[in-house]
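HUMAN: I'm a chemist; might I ask for a sequence paired with its structure tokens?

ASSISTANT:
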Amino acid sequence: MSTNRSLSLYDLLGTQDFIIRIPVAQRDYAQGRKGEESRRQNFLHAIKDALLAGQRSLPLDLDFIYGSQEQSADVHPEHSDAGPAVHHTCGTSTFFSVLDGQQRLTTLFLLHWYLALKEGEIADFRSRFAPHGTSRLTYHTRESARLFFDAIVQQDALSGLWAGLMTGAGMADHICDQTWFHLAWMDDPTIEGCLTMLDALHVDLGPCESGLYARLTGRDGQGARITFQFLDIGSFKLTDDLYIRMNARGRSLSAFENFKAGLCGHLDVNALGDDRFTHQLDTQWADLFWGMVRQQGSAHTDEYNRLYLRFFMLMAFYRECDETAASSFDRLSGKEQAYIRQLRTADDYNPPTTLKNFSLFDGQTLERITRLLDYYLRYPAFAHAPFSGDGAATLASALAPRAGYEAQALFYALVCYIHAGGDPVGNPQAYRRWQRVVNNLVHNHTIDDVPAFIRICRSLGRMAEHHADLYGWMAEEPGANSPPDRTAAVPNQWHEECCKAWLIHAYPAWEAAIIVCEQHDYLRGRIWAVLEQSWPEGAHHPDQAQFARNTAIFHVLLSPTVLACPRYLLQRALLTLGDYTAGKDNLCGPKQRSYSERSQNWLGVINRRDSKWQRDHSQSQDLFTSLVCAVDLLLPIVPSAILVRNVKRALATIIRKDMKAMENRGETYHGYPCPRYWWNLMISCPQAFSYCRQHRIGRNSWEHNNPTGKNYNNPDIYLISKTTYGSRHVELRTYVLYQCLKRRRHIFEALAKINYTPVSGHGVYPTLDMKFSDGRTFHVTYRHGRFVAVSGPGGKEHIAFPPILRGILETYVPPEYLESVSEVS
């Protein structure tokens, strides 16, 4: 049919056996769109006038409708969960791809449907518009639109539909209330437009007399009252320009719709998926994501599209990580690495090349998606439960706009668990055990880039294979049942988890005790130090009573109250035992947002056996273990009685005893710590810690006048206000002297004012500045083991100590630590 003819839609479908299909390049159905009321009413008035006009009037001509016929091998098996039963003819079908006339054809289809329903002509309508059970007008733009048109022509959907329509009710609301209508369809612009048009048809034609269906189709013998000029222009390829022009008149497809069209095409070509997958995309799975959007307080289509697309991009990222080893990732080109990173955060869609022509959506990915989303459908409460740390809502966390690697690793673990056959709801004990190990592994690794993410995911994927008896499998891992080797480094988290799994597997009573210990905001599963400290020498397993007591002590020592104590009791008590900073120059703060922060602060101190202080003093225990033992001796016997105030009192007692011991060891001068022992100065002066707002110090192990080389035992110590020397910093000895002079300035009549000048950067020195009543001002700094008088604030030129200044300093500083006149010269 290559020449134009004047036909009605009824006649066209009666003379041709093709299916009218609106191609992907077309816009959505716009005549029913909100904002098009005036245009819609004008068109409906013309239709009504044509149907009610006298026999001598000419039919309403809708101008040219043209397109081309195409052959397709679409096979659509029956979907039992899609509402009314649908059966599609299998085999090769002919489609008429509409180039121009989409809006008019859709309105005519809805007009025939409505009048047939109203006037009881359902059988005739179905024989012409759905002879094989599916609609002969369909949309290729969205799967949901195709399903909708198929659903409304089913006998089950049509039977009783008109009789159940309440007087005065809207047609659209009545359709939406049907059991076969999916909630997600309301968010398809084409379906939304169809419902709006049906409402308008019901208002305009509902009150009219019967017989309009016969007049519309020409069955009254007078000829069809609405026709158009039909033209089949043969093979016609849509160009980009035409696509842009067509969509400029209506709403363009969203990024997700473009992705979905490409994915469905990929499945058809490669036979990787079946129709159930594409069907679920626009029905029950779509309802699931709409539920998530609404739960987040949004009901916008754009947010739904973003969230849904974000999910598929993340699944593609997971598949890429499965296929890429962490070592091989580093050997990829910069462009390939950027591509993988982009998949993780993508919420937009570019041409299929960005997904390697959809190769990432292979059988494994499709199976993962299907099992996961179907599981969420089976247990909606699991899908939408508020996040409580058990992974029940990791889907929403992983798809958040700024989701981090940790949240996406937790979601990957859940995907693997369900894909492997795990049942979180049906087998809660196995799931709780799985999630405990997963949380411990994820929260105790630094996952800040793709290689680290790939490494943790490989461990999680391997665990998923043994989810049915996770503890039993982990208990058989090498070294899991071995007592700790106190000469070895602290084991990594995986080894720790295997040891705990062996302990629980062999002695089930341990499970509750271990969980209590792990559930601490700072430890978060990293409890090897507590286990080891509770493990008697030569014993096969730890002592559970001692473990419970140590757990209580550790929890209090690492509580926010103690970590943020303004008197810095924990830091000062540790310094009584040695240099717990161990060369890291980190005094440790309460930061705990990530594993990186925890490991660079207290977690690194708790789990360290190889500190410089330990090597120097040949200790068999690390500092934190020694402190726990010291605190334990000062606490009540009953673990439940270990309170914050008890621990703080014990720490204060340890500090007080150490300061008394300083005097006995001759490490004080007139009651104040000697400059040589810098840790004693910090123990006696909490203000030194207060100045270090980022808990950092700097040290300079000088060689000046030291024949043995660098002076590691008595370095110059700088208190840094931020994290580097580029920030303002002061020098420890002069700063402690400044605090002493401030407290007791009243005993020095000649001292009018005292101040401290911090500096920034290298090569300049902070100074203690003292102004005397006679108007003179002197500046003191500490350099290479000596207090030095300099010419001005930040100055480098040494001057001799004036007698009045030396007299004040010798109140706190032994004379040998003051630079002599001969040294100045």
About this structure: The two ends are 113 Å apart (CA to CA).
